[in-house]
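The protein record passed on for reference:
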Amino acid sequence: MSAALARRLVVKSVLFGVAGAVVLAAAVPASAAVIICQGTGQQCAPQTDANVLLTTATNVNLVQGTFNGGGQTAAGVFDSSENLDADANGQAVISATDGSVLNDLTFSLTNGSTFGVATFNLSAAGTALANEATSVSISFIDAAGVSAAQTFAINTNGSNFFGISGTAGERFTGFTFAGNPTTTGIADFRQLRLGNVQSAVAAVPEPGTWAMMLLGFGAIGASMRRRKGYKLAQVA
C-alpha cells in the first residue's frame, strides 16, 4: 500500500470519529429536565418496579435498605443527622428515635448504582407534634453529582407522596429531604419505590477519545504495511 493511500485511510478514520461526536451531540434533547413532583400515590412519576425494604434498626443514624423486585441486588443507605428507628415489618418506615419529628433524611445507592425514578411518602403525624413541618425541601443528586431542590407545602395530617424523575432518561444516585426551616420535620418516611435501577458500568470513551484511538490504529496499520512491503522488496 502506498504512503498516500495510508494517509487517506487515517484521514477517513478521523472524520468518522468526528461524525460520531456530532451525532451524539445532536441526540441530547434541549428541553431535558428533572421533575420533583407532589401528588397522590405514584401519579406524579413513571412506574416503579422495585420496593425498597429496610433492615430493622433502633437508635442509629444509618439504616441499610435492600430491593424487593426489579431483579436488583444493589443496596441503599439511609442516613440522618439524628438517630433513627427502622421498622422492616410490612410497610417499611423510618422515624426519629426520640419520638419527635424526623428532621432530615438522605437516601443513596451503594457501589455507584443509579436509578431513573423514585416515589416515597413523607407521612405527617395525624396528631399534634412539636415542631411538625408545614413545608419540606426535596432535592435530588444526579449521576454527575449535581443537585437541585424545591420546597413544597405539605399536608400536616396524612400522606405526602413525592416523585423524582427526568424527561430525558436522567440518572440519579440519591435524594434528600429536610423540614423547612430545618428545625421542623415530619412524623416518618415510608413507601420508597425505585424504577430502572442500574449497576455501575465502565465509563464509555468520549467521541474525541474514539477519534484519537482510530487515528492511532490507522497510523500503526500504515506503519506495519510499509514495513511488510519493505521486507518483501528485500526478499525479491
About this structure: The chain has two domains: 34-195, 203-236. The chain has a mean pLDDT of 73. The domain at 34-195 is CATH 2.60.120 (Jelly Rolls).
